[in-house]
Amino acid sequence: MELTWKGKLEWLVMAGFLYIINAHVSEGGITSSFLRSYNYSLDMPLDSDVFRVPPGYNAPQQVHITQGDHLGKGVIVSWITQDEPGSSTVVYWAQDSQLKLQADGFFVTYNYFNYTSGYIHHCTIENLEFDTQYFYEVGIGFTTREFWFKTPPPVGPDVPYTFGLIGDLGQTYDSNTTLTHYEKSPAKGETVLYVGDLSYADDYPFHDNIRWDTWGRFTERVAAYQPWIWTAGNHEIDFAPELGETRPFKPYTARYHVPFQASHSTSPLWYSIKRASAYIIVMSAYSAIGKYTPQYKWLENEFAKVNRKETPWLIVLMHSPIYSSYVAHYMEGETVRVMYERWFVKYKVDVVFAGHVHAYERSERVSNIAYNIVNGLCKTMNDQSAPIYITIGDGGNIEGLATAMTEPQPKYSAFREASFGHGILDIKNRSHAYFSWNRNQDGCAVEADSIWLNNRYYWTHSDEASLSELRHHEKVKQLAEA
């Protein structure tokens, strides 16, 4: 069984604590009654301190890292120099070593309408040691900048690991709150799973790419120190033939490199990685998804080759949710669901994270794979082989919250709330993981929803005792931190 809000309530009542659930229960699940003061969120002005350009001539800026291979022993370091190319070399060393090594990269530039980018550097560091802290330097002369990261533990079935979940962030005042809460969270992840829609530059006239630069500087404070696993959203398409821009995803693919070739993908828009005990598959909801397309053929092979004895946690990232009860973007993910939901069920995907809808929602384990166009079987059914679907497109962008919900709440919807926030996925072992959604409220992150995830491949009813022990340990830790 999954530990839901009811399990949390029982535990706190037994512990003698008063726990008030600010929600109402419908036939479908919980619709939170938390009322966020609704002010339309505006982008921070260009002179905000979070957009500050690093001092010095041609200083590296917009530094960010992501995984650089399939196993987690590589890191792609990316940054921009604005005035001239400078150096594409990264100097790096292990924490306890005096030996400094270097890796050489390359740079690219692009033009978009009336904008010309700076020099975008990408450098892959390979053959790193697992579970090791590394320091690295980019830049030359007096403008060298130093950062650090930690590699993951070796891949294995019982390796604990914590991921942060952020989507649709943008660069508003609410975006800044979300990123700050994630930074300060006691349970902060070691890697961010980012479910698409980054800068929202395309919301500006002529797709003002200066807003790509400000977003890169804004997120550097986290993205330079831990990998962000990128997913492309609709705001990354940047298809604007009226501006003469007919190549989709041009700014995104120039700025954010991913290790797609390591998983034998033919596009940076869909790929996979292993990290600790998780196998993460990134899909592109805005690329061709039909049968025989490159993404279809890659996914067909990819799901079949996942070894759950090595990486028991199978996680899918995409931008557009396939189960959502909000009015905004309702049913937009239906084509993806029709094509791929049967694979999610067949291969027992544990959880699918999506963004796009600017709110939070968690589903029950449901599927609708029996339906075809003539049989009329178009209602979802409980399916313990199906993933839980979590929509977390609530980073805080300029378009504001999605507040309108379909009524009555569908049976597949377990919990929904129109607030900004972020998520934490804390994998404990091969059978159990703890997911929490943290609302931005009152100057701090508030855990507003949580659930224990039982791995679809490993979990059995005989694990109930270990689940009970984990639940107790987690609550004791939370109360101690409070």
UniProtKB/TrEMBL annotation:
Enzyme Commission code: 3.1.3.2
Pfam families according to UniProt: Metallophos, Metallophos_C, Pur_ac_phosph_N
GO MF term set: acid phosphatase activity; transition metal ion binding
Alphabetical UniProt keywords: Glycoprotein, Hydrolase, Iron, Metal-binding, Signal, Zinc
Residue stretches making up the Purple acid phosphatase C-terminal domain: 386-445
Catalytic activity: a phosphate monoester + H2O = an alcohol + phosphate
Cofactor(s) demanded: Fe cation; Zn(2+)
Enzyme class: hydrolase
Stretches assigned to the Purple acid phosphatase N-terminal domain: 60-151
Origin superkingdom: Eukaryota
Residue ranges of every copy of the Calcineurin-like phosphoesterase domain listed in the record: 162-360
Listed Gene3D superfamilies: 3.60.21.10, Purple acid phosphatase-like, N-terminal
Similarity-based family: Belongs to the metallophosphoesterase superfamily. Purple acid phosphatase family.
This protein's name: Purple acid phosphatase
